[in-house]
Amino acid sequence: MDTFILIGITGIGLGALYFLVASGLSLIYGLMGVLNFAHGSFLSVGAFVGYWIATQLGPETSMLDFILAMLVGGLAAGLFALLMEQLLITRLYDRHIDQALVTVGVALVVGAVLGGWFGNDLIMFPTPMWFLTAVNVGGAMIPADRIVYIATAVLLLVANWALLKFTRIGLIIRAGVENRNMVNALGINVRLAFSTVFFIGGFAAGVGGVLVSVYSNGVSPLIAGSYLIYGFIVVVIGGMGSVPGSFLAAMLIGVIRQFANYYVTGLGDFVVVILLAGVLLIRPQGLLGKVRA
After folding, report:
1. 192-245: per-residue pLDDT in tens?
2. Which pLDDT tens digit goes with each residue over 34-51?
């Protein structure tokens, strides 16, 4: 039973990281139809800015220092995403092939620049000593950092829900997901909503980048690639434009992958691909996605 709890909570913690990467992807494609292959670069920018902040705060990182580094990393990634949207994406709406080419180019450039400055080897991310302890849950000793991943993902989910449900910009975003042309016809400033979504997506990816660096035992430009792939899988399974769907899919993938790898090493990735294929065959719109005309 202890092993079952440990694997389950560890899988939920991994799913939380997938959600942090996928939530922005889901909104960006769901609202704007933008194929953003540079989303992994948001993760890398957030991770390295967070790393720099953490190293500047002193030799010993407290929990408050880590939270500050995580927030600053998220803000930096959000601003980078906003800058990319203003300089590049605004000229490429409804041009999907051009979007893919340009965003892939941005990802390659950012990866090369960060690799040139910091190298591609893992650099240890300063973390609080509390992260090295364990928390007793039902008799299972759970690494403390998993609790942070889960709490951050839940907090982001609630914040996204509150933004979309109770604010005017959230109303515009939800309307844009349903019918972008109608929102434009009503004379509403959809561009502001677009920019807000890019910032939110970049912020979530930047926060995720800091936490991914902790989970991966170091920060590197190369770690963004694998998480971006899982981010796209989460978005497809959860449903385009559905943040709750992405959360559900991320938790499902994280838990299934951990259990599969526990019983057969390396089986987790294969099981996730089978799950993706099954969803595409049975419910192409995703778990909580809506069928569009």
Report:
1. 777 888 898 899 999 999 999 999 888 988 888 888 889 889 999 998 778 888
2. 778 888 899 999 999 999
Cα–Cα dist 78/45, whole Å: 9
Interval 77-116: pLDDT, tens: 999 999 998 888 888 877 878 888 899 999 999 989 998 8
The Cα 159–Cα 166 span in angstroms is 10
| Burial of 81 from C-beta contacts in 10 A (0-12 / 13-18 / 19+) | buried
Contacts of 34 (CB under 8 A, 6+ apart): 28, 89, 92, 93, 99, 103
Query: Around Cβ 97, how many Cβ atoms within 10 Å?
Result: 9
Residues composing the chain: 293
Nearest alpha carbon to residue 160 among 274, 28, 11: 28
Segment among 14-23, 59-68, 181-190, 264-273 with least mean pLDDT:
181-190
The DSSP result for the chain, as a single string, is -HHHHHHHHHHHHHHHHHHHHHHHHHHHHHHH----TTHHHHHHHHHHHHHHHHHHT-SS--HHHHHHHHHHHHHHHHHHHHHHHHHTGGG-TT-HHHHHHHHHHHHHHHHHHHHHHH-SS-BPPP--GGGGSEEEETTEEEEHHHHHHHHHHHHHHHHHHHHHHHSHHHHHHHHHHH-HHHHHHTT--HHHHHHHHHHHHHHHHHHHHHHHHHHTTSB-TTHHHHHHHHHHHHHHHH-TT-HHHHHHHHHHHHHHHHHHHHHSTTHHHHHHHHHHHHHHHH-TT-SS-----
Q: Which CATH class is domain 2-282?
A: mainly alpha
d(CA 213, CA 200): 20
